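Action item from last week, closing it out:
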Amino acid sequence: MLRGLSIAGYALKRNHTRGVRYGGGTRRIGVGALILCAGLVMAMAAQAKPRHQPVRCKAGYVRRTVWVPVRRHGRIVRRHGLIVRTKVYRCVKPRSKPKPKPSSPTGTPTTPTAPQPPGTTTVPSTTTTSTTTTTTTTTASPPPPPPPPPPPPGSTVVVAVGDIACKPGDTGHSCQQSATETIASDQNPGAVFVLGDNQYDDGSLSEYDGAGAYNSTWGVFNRIVHPVPGNHEYGTSGAAGYFGYFGPTISNPLGTNGYYSFNLGNWHIVALNSNCTDSGCGDALDGGTTSAQLTWLNKDLADERAANPNACVLAMWHHPRFSAGWTSGVPNVAPLFDALYSAHADVVLNGHDHLYERFAQLDGSGNATTNGVREFVVGTGGESLNGFGFPRPSSLQAWDSSHFGVLVLTLSSSSYSWKFVTAGGATDPGSATCHGAGAGAAIARAARRAAPAAVARLAERPLYFDANPLRSSLRSVGRRGLTVAVLASRAVDVRITAWLRRGHRLTRVATFYETESQITQPRSLIRLRIARRRLAGLRTGTVVLRFAAEDGAGHRRAVTRSVRLR
């Protein structure tokens, strides 16, 4: 409208000048008024004309506002990794409301004519009026599941699981530690074995005691718990949080850096620490053992066999010797498995891989044999689940990578039974006889002595690893960090060193250590946070990153990548 008025004002001024020039007063006023009216009409018409014609819908349709992706040259437009959308109007059919059920006429009693399904109770509720009697049908809630049957006399029910509690406030993982604690409580266990990585991320005492973490869920079993440490417990120096939470009486009764043994009935239980080598302890994917622990283990097993030749033997530690999961088997713990096989042990329990696996009885090389040790991998305590990183071998008899749950063992005097219990119920039930029981013990010992020595190796594919930093600006790296796309064929620990290149000069600005907790899938994104002070004063620069990756089998890969920041 203002545009129309300005046009009219300009025309009036021009005609006023012409009128003065020709000296026609009446003509000047008439022409000016005519032009002014024309400008007003044009302005009003422009104001009345809508910018967009409204969407008109045919009968039976209504107009709705929807958001659709913006396309440019046939491709969806993205900004900062997010799809750009725009608002449009479309005609859609309205949703029809369900028709109400016809009510019975007043004064006519409503009675069910069809037979009721099992569990349905018909309760006649009579309302005293002059004309109406109403019968109400209610469905009874299903009865609670029956408690598990009591174990046979002389038996002990044991619940075992690892990789349990998320870091307090964690929203990036499943964090089902409360659900698995409920499953474990329903089994009425006489003992609980926690198999390491009991508290994420670093196993500090504050994390153990945090809201919703280990202490407020699985802490109810502290009176009957027997723990072993995992690699994440060593995210705190010396696993101080682990030893401080459980106390030396439970976690380190011998003062031997976390390995100990005890008896449950006729069962000899050995708890070991697979996070230490002769060069020290730490958060490592490939685990290991020390010569001191191995010497103690051989002596402990020999003493037990001398005192009780028919004892059943169970050992537990964190890193599995054999696994087809994401983190794979760990050859560095082979000396522990070989010592147990030579002592004709029966069961080994591990965590580390976030899934459930039950193997056949194996020798130290991974070959199935009736004289071997049966291995269970139970990393389904609640933090998260992962899939398989290798083809499943024929020796793997049962597995579950989709459900959280616990392993329930019933340890009898000369045998044991097992089942994997999830929220949906028990799966994979089975039982076996101990090697140390009956006349079969001598045959088993003779077969072990006659077996040729072999070096245990994993039949697996080569490790593939690559990493590429994504394009970023200096501002975004300072605020949110540098995002790196990682491609790995299985779980790896990655040490990353970052340099800043200025001309021909390289300056180291940061180091990072990323584990299977951050690299959880074959294709993962990690974020490297570089201190802002390292980037202060830069208008442009190049960051050079060196990645050194190592898997549980000790395979190593190294790559160097660079990205220019503007």
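Closing note: Residues 16-23, 103-139, 437-441, 448-458 have pLDDT under 50 and may be disordered.
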